[in-house]
Amino acid sequence: MNTHEKLEILTNSAKYDVACTSSGVKDRPGKTVACGVCHAFSADGRCITLLKILLSNECIYNCKYCVNRTSNDVPRTTFTPAELAELTVEFYRRNYIEGLFLSSGVVKNPDYTMEQMIKALELLRHTHNFWGYIHAKTIPGASPEMVHRLGLLADRLSVNIELPSEASLKLLAPDKTRAAVLAPMGQIRQMGEQNTRELQLYRSAPKFAAAGQATQMIIGASPETDYQIIKLSSAMYEKYALRRVFFSAYVPTSNDSLLPSMDTNPPLLREHRLYQADWLMRFYKFKADEILSPETPDFNPYLDPKCNWALNNLHLFPIDVNKAGLADLLRIPGVGPTSAERIVTARRNGRLALADLRRIGVVLKRAQYFIVAADHLPPTSKDATVRALLDPGAFNFGVEQLTIFSPTPATTLHLPPAQKAERNALEEVVEGLVAGM
Predict the structure, then answer these.
(1) Any idea which of 69-83, 360-374, 421-435 has the lowest mean pLDDT?
(2) Which of 108, 253, 312, 352 could form a disulfide with 112 if both were Cys (CB 3.0 to 4.6 A apart)?
(3) Which strands, in side-by-side order, build the sheet including 156-158?
(4) pLDDT digits (tens, 9 = 90+) for 164-179
């Protein structure tokens, strides 16, 4: 099997690992890379293009949700460390990529697999003098020595927690244990903190995973609620100082009584809501228990988590943007971290009106229902508030922007039956949300 054939197999096998911003990108103008390109953010915040690939799709484990499980009949291949290093450098020289995202199936055992990954990165760093960004996946069960060696070569490490509960992990991935996943997470945090102290004393000290660590959870393969998932994410951020928790909507790859059927659509909207909640916890200072609770354990599909929280806490509004503190400003739908800081700065020069807030970057379509400004009091219509906050992405039907040539409202009586049903469903959603306010 030649290198190009290996590349096609091992980049395709890597597409289910979502510990980067996007994956599976097709050809771009001026490029000839058909697959295996993803985008991630480096330690200094730059968006960079990575070659996303497996060292091997051979695996001794039989995780039921994984396309590379040992019982799955797929073409198998493995790069040698030299092949992988040369391929990465060649792509880099042609300006296809700026770095590498490397993972692997478990070949023989975790330590052997990690040794092969380390050899490939050593060739890149020390033989080919490649100092681009590298994100490497730690294999659960590998020895602490291997984790340390890998961290000295990679900018970011990650260990996939895979499933949100130990019970689901035992059921769907019987060869893995929660302890084998969490142990390297703790080690990476400890070594990272130690490395920070060393760099403060010795500027020439080698860096250990300077961009921190991340993890990934598969969503929809097991029965955990959204509340359980965000509680786990919050705990891992706190305990292991993770930079990111990535969520991967489960894509059915096999017929198994323990998994969703093959005709089940990936829960993409649920994945999106989890990322929105994750953003609230990381940048808006929300706690998991504020977003969801045991009584309401799942996201509202029609509202993003922040808007849903606002509608359930109307007693906290309206907020006077000319007096409120930064923490309160961050709770307003339509106000983000940047616009909140701009409000605090701008109001030193005088009271802010709606036009000022618009220039600052506040999304007034949503914010106007929750704020008091120099020239504004919020409307009292609950129906209008709900309609302004509804997420159009939650409705899988087309709504065209009205134009001067649009049909008059009376012509909507002649809508096709399917579209009438969808409009009626929208009205039912609005009525239900208003009734619950």
Answers:
(1) 421-435
(2) 108
(3) 37-41, 47-54, 99-103, 133-137, 156-158, 213-219, 244-249
(4) 999 999 999 999 999 9
